[in-house]
Amino acid sequence: MSPHTTARLLSIIVAEQPCNASGIEESEMPYLHYPKPETFDREECTCNLVRYFAIMSQQRSGSGWFETLLNSHINVSSNGEIFGRRERRTNISAIVKTLDKVYNLDWFSSASKNECNAAVGFKWMLNQGLMAHREGIAEYFKEKGVSAIFLFRRNLLRRMVSMLANSHDSHAKLLNGTHKSHVHSAADAQVLATYKPKVNTTSLVSHFRKLEETAAKAVESFKSTRHIVLYYEDLVNNSTKLIEVQEFLRLPYRELTSRQVKIHSGPLSRQIQNWEEVQKTLKGTPFERFLL
Fold first, then answer.
1. What does the alpha-carbon distance between residue 161 and residue 156 come to, in Å, rounded to a whole number?
2. Cα(144)–Cα(80) distance, rounded to whole angstroms?
3. At what angle do helices 134-144 and 92-103 cross, to 10 degrees?
4. 48, 130, 234, 259: which sits with the fewest CB atoms below 10 Å from its CB?
């Protein structure tokens, strides 16, 4: 960003808001916003700067759990999987209209907070129009100063188990006739974990290769935007990763918590019906590491 553009942005911030904008580092300016919602009066939070973010992920990669962690922060509102609705992603115009509503704080969900927001965003699956319109979306992110949080799973075989089990339960409804993608008790998790899917090994290697290529292409498409790449396993095993996330969003530090309980844990050999066949298929390939 040129010095002229930077100075112009600061002038706009100072001119439009009766707030003290001094002390803001020039490198941070594109990511700081004073939203002006149309649906409510933000008077008490007029001078509270807000950062925009999007959690970009793939289904069953821990994004739901991760979002509950973020929403446990008193100053964060992450509004769920808003592009799950097809009409919101039919074209780039529909996408931009939805994004504007979210970042202007005119999007209401269970994540909406009474406190002054320090960061607002949502989660976005790569197959929900994100990759199809990635160029236009990346341009929007750069223009609006949106920070991208990529969240993937290192072990794609465990992700597949979760996908197959979740798909099965959407029909079987093992929990008293109710389908739940996420649970809040160990008892419910144990019930859902009783189902052991059979993995189709015919295209397993090519499937994993395509998933990794898609993730790499997504990160590459947003390399010119402010972004961070996270992995579910790292967040689970290393508590400092959540500190890094809060630092990335420039949030005041809080202990982040979630009520969600992990459904599939323990050795994969106990979770896959045709485990020996899967072992044979993956051994000697780059994806043999998923067997651990």
1. 9
2. 20
3. 30
4. 259
List beta partners, residue 152.
231
Boundaries of every domain in the chain: 28-290
Q: How far is CA 105 from CA 19, 40, 42, in A?
A: 19, 9, 9
Cross-sheet strand order for the sheet of 51-57? 76-78, 119-125, 51-57, 146-152, 227-231
| CA–CA distances in Å: residue 132 to residues 13, 99, 195 | 33, 16, 34
**Do residues 162 and 60 touch, judged by C-beta distance below 8 A?**
yes
Closest CA to 115 of 45, 187, 49, 203: 45
Does residue 17 register a pLDDT over 60? no
**Among the listed ranges 11-25, 91-105, 261-275, which one has the minimum average pLDDT value?**
11-25
CATH code assigned to 28-290: 3.40.50
| Spatial CA neighbour of 78 closest among 203, 280, 265, 245 | 245
The answer to whether 194 touches 271, Cβ cutoff 8 Å, is no
Only one residue has tokens 């700081």, namely: 32
